[in-house]
Design a protein that fits this description.
It is built from nine helices and nine strands. With 240 residues, the chain is of the alpha/beta class. Strands 3-2-1-4-5-6-7 form a seven-stranded parallel sheet, with helices on both faces.
Length: 240
């Protein structure tokens, strides 16, 4: 089986890269013979880090060719079906789904977090193409409710867990983290990991969060900021 994967891959977003690893490793445990091709913003990097074939996501000819040679498209997780960060994001990802259906292969939305979707045209595209998917799995109830509100009712819709929870870190990865903690004197004490993002609807959260973290630090906790999207989240972490 050859599986094409579409998502926010190759952009140094730790969450989406973990999601890609979780999807491919989970499928490989069930079907070791499975082959993957990933539509990526950095194909060489994706191939090196994940051990998969990858092509540039904005090359329509390569994307179409790979879809025609695949048995399944997985539109993978994160929050790619939304239109608040960019009006171009949702039309792109939904167009890949449309191309897959034109190529005659089944499509699965894999543990998607959907929304916000504010624009009428975005809602129209989701309704037009989403109802032609073969299965939709979602990572939260709000995403399910939003799809129902938009009239996406044809494929089976299921709420499931985020695939990242299925990740099993290798001994090598655990050792790298242990070495990193030791190098920064983060061993032998309670840690609080913090991941923040610049998100306009939440603007103003920085000061209350900082007070909470100050309080925890006063109780002996070490605060560790984890920029999931680099370098953007590093700047937001410094604000807090």
């Amino acid at each position: 089986m050859r599986i094409a994967l579409s998502g926010y891959y190759g952009f140094d977003n730790a969450g989406d890269e973990a999601l890609l690893k979780a999807i491919t490793s989970s499928i490989r445990r069930l079907a070791p013979e499975a082959e993957f091709v990933v539509f990526s913003g950095a194909p060489e990097k994706t191939s090196s880090e994940h051990g998969v074939q990858a092509v540039y996501y904005k090359n329509p000819f390569k994307v179409w060719l790979e879809l025609c040679q695949s048995d399944l498209l997985i539109s993978g997780g994160g929050s790619i079906f939304q239109d608040v960060t960019s009006p171009r994001s949702l039309p792109y990802y939904i167009s890949v789904v449309a191309l897959a259906k034109l190529a005659g292969i089944p499509v699965i939305f894999y543990a998607q977090g959907v929304g916000p979707i504010k624009r009428y045209f975005s809602q129209f595209l989701m309704r037009l193409v989403g109802n032609r998917a073969d299965m939709i799995t979602l990572r939260d109830e709000k995403s399910l409710d939003l799809l129902w509100e938009m009239g996406i009712i044809h494929p089976p819709l299921l709420v499931t867990a985020d695939p990242v929870f299925s990740l099993q870190p290798s001994a090598e990865a655990e050792q790298r983290v242990s070495d990193l903690f030791a190098r920064h004197d983060l061993t032998g004490q309670p840690l609080v990991g913090v991941a923040v993002r610049q998100w306009q609807p939440l603007e103003g959260y920085q000061a209350p969060l900082a007070r909470v973290l100050d309080n925890l630090a006063g109780q002996g906790y070490k605060i560790v900021f984890i920029p999931m999207a680099y370098p953007e989240d590093a700047g937001e972490s410094r604000r807090v």
